Amino acid sequence: VATGPRVGVAGVAGTDAFPWRFWVPGDRTVSPFRWGRGAAEAASAQSGAGAL
After folding, report:
1. Cα-based distances in Å from 52 to 1, 8, 10, 14, 33
2. Cα separation of 31 and 13, whole Å?
3. Residue 1: its pLDDT value, please?
4. 21, 5 Cβ separation under 8 angstroms
5. Which pLDDT value is given to residue 48?
6. Greatest CA separation found in the chain?
């Protein structure tokens, strides 16, 4: 079983610190993780000083 960040959750809860997404590697019925529009930039901005 593989783990990853929860899709659609911002901030630290959407990082590998909270592995909310579980799947069987190689299972074709599981959609691959893809960053949403602007999500990668928002996550990078929140990882700076003052982030929760």
Report:
1. 28, 17, 10, 11, 23
2. 20
3. 92
4. yes
5. 57
6. 39
User: Is residue 10, in this structure, part of any structural domain at all?
Assistant: yes
Domain presence at residue 40? no
Q: What global pTM score does this model have? A: 0.43
Q: Give 7-41 pLDDT, tens digit per residue.
A: 778 788 777 777 778 889 989 888 777 767 776 66
Are residues 15 and 1 in contact, defined by beta-carbon separation less than 8 angstroms?
no
Cα distance between residue 12 and residue 28, in whole Å = 28
Q: What is the pLDDT of residue 6?
A: 76
- Contact by Cβ (8 Å): 14, 6: yes
Task: Provide the 8-state DSSP code for 44.
Answer: H
Looking at the structure of the chain, the number of domains it has is 1
